[in-house]
Amino acid sequence: MIANNGRLKIAIQKRGRLTDDSLTLLRACGLEFEFRQESLYSPCRNFDLDILALRDDDIPEYVQDGVADLGIVGENIVREKRARVETLLALGFGQCRLMISVPQRSPIRTVQELRHKRMATTYPTTLKGFLRQHHLKAEVVELRGSVELAPTLDVADAICDIISTGTTARVNGLRPLHAVLESEAILIAHRRALTGGKKRSLIERLLIRISGSLQARGRRYMMMNAPLSAVPRLKRIIPSLKSPTVVPLAEEGMVALHSVVPEDVFWDVMERLKKAGASDIIVVPIETIIK
Question: Which of 125, 156, 182 is the last residue of a domain?
């Protein structure tokens, strides 16, 4: 049986906005598998790991109960479900906000003006906690979907729903009022799986791979040649993880410099390096950084 085969199990969203990024991350860790959305699980060929394809709302509970040892899911879902799990890593994708919004023509301008109003949401637990924290009494209308239509249908005066880009809210005549929660995809774990034994060992090995892949994200490996006399100037320009590696070349007075550069500043850095004396600049992608 899948449940008792002794392999590590990680649950990911079967179909949705986190699915592709979750699969990309796992494959970047060197895991080989065939993922089929219609299948409950996909076994890895080169690691003792089974990938479970679940509804995102179910992932926190499956991890909490030990059906899955690990899960990739939005922090917003974990908080809403109040799941008793351990958060291991923030994964840097699936960013969104749980936002209170009101109709464009609404006179409501502050959170305090929500007092005694009707608020529609698919996140009742999180919203009720927010209202308690702000000492507000409001009627929470729990819906299963299409929350953005609630004001138009006169079901609610405001909504509390997930926003990624805000396009859906604007199309439905809503304006943001207050962010309740900032969220992204996180890696969660069943608590007993971390206490020892084979599962803990597998989790530690997988964490090294995931952390290395995340460290490499948005970075490039840069190599260049330069006169030895230019090295002090170049070192001040290069935003390296640590001091750049400097290697003597066969040509006297010339060296090669190797460094890791953030992708978002690469072009600016490259132009400055060239002006400071660097030549033959080569940039290559990085798959993993292990610290």
Answer: 182
